Amino acid sequence: MSSSVCLPEEDLSCPVCCEIFRDPVLLPCSHSFCKTCLQCYWNTSALRQCPVCRRRASKRTPPSNLALKNLCEALQQGRIQSSAEGNSVLCSLHGERLRFFCLVDKQPVCVVCQASKIHKNHDCVPTEKAAQDCKNQALETERQIKDLFVELHQFLYDEEAARLAALKEEEEEKIGLMNSTVTKAAAGMLYLKETITVITQEITDAEDMTLLRNFKATIERAQCTGQGPERISGALIDVAKHLCNLKYRVWKKMLLHVENTPVTLDPNTAHPCLFLVT
Protein backbone atom coordinates (compact mmCIF):
# COMPACT_ATOMS: atom_id res chain seq x y z
CA MET A 1 0.00 0.00 0.00
CA SER A 2 1.15 3.53 -0.72
CA SER A 3 2.76 5.46 2.10
CA SER A 4 0.17 8.24 1.68
CA VAL A 5 -2.70 5.83 2.52
CA CYS A 6 -2.55 4.85 6.18
CA LEU A 7 -5.85 2.97 6.51
CA PRO A 8 -5.85 -0.84 6.55
CA GLU A 9 -6.78 -2.37 3.23
CA GLU A 10 -9.83 -4.03 4.82
CA ASP A 11 -11.33 -0.58 5.47
CA LEU A 12 -11.02 0.22 1.78
CA SER A 13 -12.71 -2.99 0.60
CA CYS A 14 -16.32 -3.33 -0.51
CA PRO A 15 -18.31 -5.69 1.80
CA VAL A 16 -20.01 -7.23 -1.25
CA CYS A 17 -17.12 -8.00 -3.64
CA CYS A 18 -14.34 -7.82 -1.02
CA GLU A 19 -12.21 -5.82 -3.46
CA ILE A 20 -10.97 -2.23 -3.30
CA PHE A 21 -13.89 0.18 -3.75
CA ARG A 22 -14.71 1.23 -7.31
CA ASP A 23 -16.89 4.35 -7.48
CA PRO A 24 -18.01 3.99 -3.83
CA VAL A 25 -21.42 5.34 -2.79
CA LEU A 26 -22.59 6.16 0.74
CA LEU A 27 -25.88 5.00 2.31
CA PRO A 28 -27.70 6.85 5.10
CA CYS A 29 -26.52 4.14 7.52
CA SER A 30 -22.91 5.23 6.79
CA HIS A 31 -22.01 1.99 5.02
CA SER A 32 -20.27 2.32 1.67
CA PHE A 33 -20.33 -0.01 -1.33
CA CYS A 34 -19.18 -0.10 -4.92
CA LYS A 35 -21.84 1.56 -7.00
CA THR A 36 -22.11 -1.47 -9.29
CA CYS A 37 -22.14 -3.97 -6.40
CA LEU A 38 -24.94 -2.11 -4.60
CA GLN A 39 -27.02 -1.83 -7.75
CA CYS A 40 -26.63 -5.56 -8.48
CA TYR A 41 -27.61 -6.39 -4.90
CA TRP A 42 -30.75 -4.27 -5.09
CA ASN A 43 -31.67 -5.82 -8.46
CA THR A 44 -31.76 -9.26 -6.82
CA SER A 45 -33.37 -8.16 -3.54
CA ALA A 46 -37.03 -7.48 -2.89
CA LEU A 47 -36.21 -4.60 -0.53
CA ARG A 48 -34.00 -1.59 -1.10
CA GLN A 49 -31.86 -1.99 2.02
CA CYS A 50 -28.25 -1.99 3.19
CA PRO A 51 -26.51 -5.32 2.48
CA VAL A 52 -24.74 -5.11 5.86
CA CYS A 53 -27.19 -3.76 8.46
CA ARG A 54 -30.44 -4.31 6.50
CA ARG A 55 -31.53 -0.73 7.13
CA ARG A 56 -33.98 0.57 4.56
CA ALA A 57 -32.51 3.01 2.06
CA SER A 58 -34.25 5.82 0.28
CA LYS A 59 -35.23 5.62 -3.35
CA ARG A 60 -32.87 8.42 -4.20
CA THR A 61 -29.58 7.59 -5.89
CA PRO A 62 -26.92 7.19 -3.18
CA PRO A 63 -24.32 9.96 -3.26
CA SER A 64 -20.71 9.23 -4.12
CA ASN A 65 -18.28 8.87 -1.25
CA LEU A 66 -15.64 11.17 -2.69
CA ALA A 67 -13.27 10.93 0.27
CA LEU A 68 -13.29 7.13 0.14
CA LYS A 69 -12.94 7.22 -3.64
CA ASN A 70 -9.84 9.40 -3.36
CA LEU A 71 -8.30 7.07 -0.78
CA CYS A 72 -8.94 4.03 -3.00
CA GLU A 73 -7.49 5.76 -6.04
CA ALA A 74 -4.42 6.69 -4.01
CA LEU A 75 -4.08 3.05 -2.94
CA GLN A 76 -4.37 1.82 -6.54
CA GLN A 77 -1.83 4.39 -7.70
CA GLY A 78 0.56 3.31 -4.96
CA ARG A 79 0.18 -0.31 -6.05
CA ILE A 80 0.94 0.56 -9.65
CA GLN A 81 3.99 2.56 -8.59
CA SER A 82 5.21 -0.29 -6.40
CA SER A 83 4.67 -2.66 -9.31
CA ALA A 84 6.87 -0.53 -11.57
CA GLU A 85 9.61 -0.31 -8.93
CA GLY A 86 9.53 -3.96 -7.87
CA ASN A 87 8.81 -5.59 -11.26
CA SER A 88 5.50 -6.92 -9.90
CA VAL A 89 2.76 -7.05 -12.52
CA LEU A 90 -0.61 -5.51 -11.64
CA CYS A 91 -3.76 -5.01 -13.67
CA SER A 92 -3.75 -1.56 -15.27
CA LEU A 93 -7.54 -1.33 -14.83
CA HIS A 94 -8.03 -2.54 -11.27
CA GLY A 95 -4.57 -2.47 -9.69
CA GLU A 96 -4.89 -6.14 -8.68
CA ARG A 97 -2.25 -8.79 -9.25
CA LEU A 98 -2.55 -10.66 -12.52
CA ARG A 99 -3.19 -14.08 -11.00
CA PHE A 100 -4.98 -15.73 -13.93
CA PHE A 101 -4.51 -16.25 -17.65
CA CYS A 102 -7.48 -16.17 -20.04
CA LEU A 103 -7.19 -19.06 -22.48
CA VAL A 104 -9.67 -17.46 -24.88
CA ASP A 105 -8.17 -13.97 -25.15
CA LYS A 106 -4.60 -15.18 -24.48
CA GLN A 107 -3.86 -12.51 -21.87
CA PRO A 108 -3.25 -12.33 -18.10
CA VAL A 109 -6.17 -11.04 -16.00
CA CYS A 110 -6.81 -10.16 -12.37
CA VAL A 111 -9.61 -11.58 -10.21
CA VAL A 112 -11.81 -8.59 -11.04
CA CYS A 113 -11.28 -9.02 -14.77
CA GLN A 114 -12.05 -12.73 -14.45
CA ALA A 115 -15.44 -11.97 -12.89
CA SER A 116 -16.27 -9.23 -15.41
CA LYS A 117 -18.59 -9.66 -18.37
CA ILE A 118 -15.67 -9.73 -20.79
CA HIS A 119 -14.07 -12.86 -19.28
CA LYS A 120 -17.00 -14.29 -17.27
CA ASN A 121 -17.57 -17.32 -19.51
CA HIS A 122 -13.93 -17.73 -20.52
CA ASP A 123 -11.64 -20.51 -19.32
CA CYS A 124 -9.01 -19.03 -17.00
CA VAL A 125 -6.14 -20.82 -15.29
CA PRO A 126 -3.56 -19.62 -12.74
CA THR A 127 -0.66 -17.78 -14.32
CA GLU A 128 1.81 -20.32 -12.90
CA LYS A 129 0.01 -23.16 -14.67
CA ALA A 130 -0.29 -21.16 -17.91
CA ALA A 131 3.43 -20.38 -17.82
CA GLN A 132 4.32 -24.03 -17.16
CA ASP A 133 2.00 -25.19 -19.96
CA CYS A 134 3.67 -22.68 -22.30
CA LYS A 135 7.12 -23.98 -21.33
CA ASN A 136 6.02 -27.59 -21.81
CA GLN A 137 4.54 -26.75 -25.21
CA ALA A 138 7.75 -24.98 -26.25
CA LEU A 139 9.88 -27.94 -25.11
CA GLU A 140 7.64 -30.41 -26.95
CA THR A 141 7.73 -28.30 -30.12
CA GLU A 142 11.53 -28.04 -29.84
CA ARG A 143 11.75 -31.83 -29.48
CA GLN A 144 9.58 -32.37 -32.57
CA ILE A 145 11.66 -29.90 -34.60
CA LYS A 146 14.87 -31.66 -33.60
CA ASP A 147 13.35 -35.07 -34.43
CA LEU A 148 12.31 -33.83 -37.89
CA PHE A 149 15.76 -32.45 -38.63
CA VAL A 150 17.40 -35.64 -37.37
CA GLU A 151 15.19 -37.53 -39.82
CA LEU A 152 16.12 -35.16 -42.67
CA HIS A 153 19.81 -35.35 -41.80
CA GLN A 154 19.61 -39.15 -41.74
CA PHE A 155 17.93 -39.10 -45.16
CA LEU A 156 20.76 -36.95 -46.57
CA TYR A 157 23.40 -39.14 -44.92
CA ASP A 158 21.80 -42.24 -46.47
CA GLU A 159 21.67 -40.58 -49.88
CA GLU A 160 25.32 -39.55 -49.61
CA ALA A 161 26.31 -43.07 -48.63
CA ALA A 162 24.32 -44.53 -51.55
CA ARG A 163 25.91 -42.14 -54.06
CA LEU A 164 29.42 -42.79 -52.77
CA ALA A 165 28.78 -46.55 -52.80
CA ALA A 166 27.66 -46.35 -56.45
CA LEU A 167 30.79 -44.35 -57.31
CA LYS A 168 32.99 -46.86 -55.47
CA GLU A 169 31.34 -49.76 -57.26
CA GLU A 170 31.96 -48.18 -60.67
CA GLU A 171 35.54 -47.34 -59.66
CA GLU A 172 36.25 -50.96 -58.74
CA GLU A 173 34.59 -52.15 -61.94
CA LYS A 174 36.69 -49.83 -64.13
CA ILE A 175 39.90 -50.68 -62.24
CA GLY A 176 39.16 -54.39 -62.71
CA LEU A 177 38.59 -53.84 -66.43
CA MET A 178 41.86 -51.94 -66.78
CA ASN A 179 43.80 -54.56 -64.81
CA SER A 180 42.36 -57.30 -67.03
CA THR A 181 43.36 -55.40 -70.16
CA VAL A 182 46.87 -54.74 -68.84
CA THR A 183 47.23 -58.44 -67.95
CA LYS A 184 46.20 -59.47 -71.46
CA ALA A 185 48.61 -56.96 -73.01
CA ALA A 186 51.46 -58.20 -70.83
CA ALA A 187 50.72 -61.79 -71.81
CA GLY A 188 50.71 -60.82 -75.50
CA MET A 189 54.03 -59.01 -75.15
CA LEU A 190 55.56 -62.02 -73.41
CA TYR A 191 54.34 -64.29 -76.20
CA LEU A 192 55.81 -61.98 -78.82
CA LYS A 193 59.11 -61.83 -76.97
CA GLU A 194 59.30 -65.61 -76.74
CA THR A 195 58.40 -65.94 -80.44
CA ILE A 196 61.13 -63.49 -81.43
CA THR A 197 63.62 -65.39 -79.30
CA VAL A 198 62.66 -68.73 -80.88
CA ILE A 199 62.78 -67.38 -84.45
CA THR A 200 66.09 -65.66 -83.83
CA GLN A 201 67.51 -68.88 -82.40
CA GLU A 202 66.25 -70.91 -85.36
CA ILE A 203 67.76 -68.47 -87.86
CA THR A 204 71.06 -68.44 -86.02
CA ASP A 205 71.38 -72.22 -85.58
CA ALA A 206 69.79 -73.45 -88.82
CA GLU A 207 71.92 -74.51 -91.79
CA ASP A 208 71.51 -72.67 -95.03
CA MET A 209 69.38 -75.32 -96.70
CA THR A 210 67.19 -75.74 -93.64
CA LEU A 211 66.79 -71.99 -93.28
CA LEU A 212 65.69 -71.67 -96.89
CA ARG A 213 63.36 -74.63 -96.61
CA ASN A 214 61.61 -73.14 -93.51
CA PHE A 215 61.85 -69.51 -94.58
CA LYS A 216 58.21 -69.21 -95.68
CA ALA A 217 56.85 -70.71 -92.45
CA THR A 218 59.17 -68.54 -90.37
CA ILE A 219 58.00 -65.36 -92.12
CA GLU A 220 54.35 -66.33 -91.58
CA ARG A 221 54.96 -66.92 -87.87
CA ALA A 222 56.67 -63.56 -87.52
CA GLN A 223 53.78 -61.74 -89.25
CA CYS A 224 50.83 -63.38 -87.42
CA THR A 225 51.93 -63.43 -83.85
CA GLY A 226 51.21 -59.82 -82.79
CA GLN A 227 48.04 -57.72 -82.31
CA GLY A 228 47.78 -54.05 -81.49
CA PRO A 229 46.76 -52.93 -77.98
CA GLU A 230 43.08 -53.50 -77.21
CA ARG A 231 41.03 -50.31 -77.03
CA ILE A 232 39.16 -50.14 -73.70
CA SER A 233 35.59 -48.88 -74.03
CA GLY A 234 34.27 -46.93 -71.01
CA ALA A 235 37.50 -47.09 -69.08
CA LEU A 236 36.94 -43.74 -67.33
CA ILE A 237 34.46 -42.88 -64.58
CA ASP A 238 31.11 -41.62 -65.89
CA VAL A 239 31.23 -38.32 -64.00
CA ALA A 240 28.03 -36.99 -65.57
CA LYS A 241 26.06 -39.97 -64.30
CA HIS A 242 27.04 -39.18 -60.72
CA LEU A 243 26.96 -35.37 -60.72
CA CYS A 244 24.43 -34.33 -63.36
CA ASN A 245 21.37 -32.80 -61.60
CA LEU A 246 22.48 -34.42 -58.35
CA LYS A 247 20.91 -31.71 -56.17
CA TYR A 248 17.65 -31.87 -58.11
CA ARG A 249 17.43 -35.65 -57.97
CA VAL A 250 18.11 -35.71 -54.22
CA TRP A 251 15.66 -32.84 -53.63
CA LYS A 252 12.96 -34.62 -55.65
CA LYS A 253 13.46 -37.80 -53.68
CA MET A 254 13.43 -35.86 -50.41
CA LEU A 255 10.20 -34.13 -51.48
CA LEU A 256 8.49 -37.51 -51.75
CA HIS A 257 9.83 -38.31 -48.29
CA VAL A 258 8.52 -35.02 -46.85
CA GLU A 259 5.08 -35.41 -48.44
CA ASN A 260 4.50 -38.45 -46.25
CA THR A 261 4.80 -36.31 -43.09
CA PRO A 262 1.39 -35.91 -41.38
CA VAL A 263 -0.12 -32.41 -41.02
CA THR A 264 -0.03 -31.06 -37.46
CA LEU A 265 -2.69 -28.55 -36.42
CA ASP A 266 -1.80 -25.62 -34.18
CA PRO A 267 -3.39 -26.38 -30.77
CA ASN A 268 -3.52 -22.64 -30.03
CA THR A 269 -5.82 -21.82 -32.95
CA ALA A 270 -7.42 -25.08 -34.13
CA HIS A 271 -10.79 -26.12 -32.74
CA PRO A 272 -10.40 -29.04 -30.27
CA CYS A 273 -12.95 -31.10 -32.22
CA LEU A 274 -11.32 -30.49 -35.61
CA PHE A 275 -9.50 -33.39 -37.27
CA LEU A 276 -8.31 -34.18 -40.79
CA VAL A 277 -9.33 -37.18 -42.87
CA THR A 278 -6.92 -38.34 -45.56
UniProtKB/TrEMBL annotation:
<dbReference type="InterPro" id="IPR050143">
    <property type="entry name" value="TRIM/RBCC"/>
</dbReference>
<protein>
    <submittedName>
        <fullName>Tripartite motif-containing protein 35-like</fullName>
    </submittedName>
</protein>
<feature type="domain" description="B box-type">
    <location>
        <begin position="86"/>
        <end position="127"/>
    </location>
</feature>
<dbReference type="Pfam" id="PF00643">
    <property type="entry name" value="zf-B_box"/>
</dbReference>
<dbReference type="InterPro" id="IPR001841">
    <property type="entry name" value="Znf_RING"/>
</dbReference>
<dbReference type="InterPro" id="IPR000315">
    <property type="entry name" value="Znf_B-box"/>
</dbReference>
<dbReference type="GO" id="GO:0008270">
    <property type="term" value="F:zinc ion binding"/>
</dbReference>
<dbReference type="InterPro" id="IPR027370">
    <property type="entry name" value="Znf-RING_euk"/>
</dbReference>
<dbReference type="Pfam" id="PF13445">
    <property type="entry name" value="zf-RING_UBOX"/>
</dbReference>
<keyword id="KW-0862">Zinc</keyword>
<keyword id="KW-0863">Zinc-finger</keyword>
<dbReference type="InterPro" id="IPR017907">
    <property type="entry name" value="Znf_RING_CS"/>
</dbReference>
<dbReference type="InterPro" id="IPR013083">
    <property type="entry name" value="Znf_RING/FYVE/PHD"/>
</dbReference>
<keyword id="KW-0479">Metal-binding</keyword>
<feature type="domain" description="RING-type">
    <location>
        <begin position="14"/>
        <end position="54"/>
    </location>
</feature>
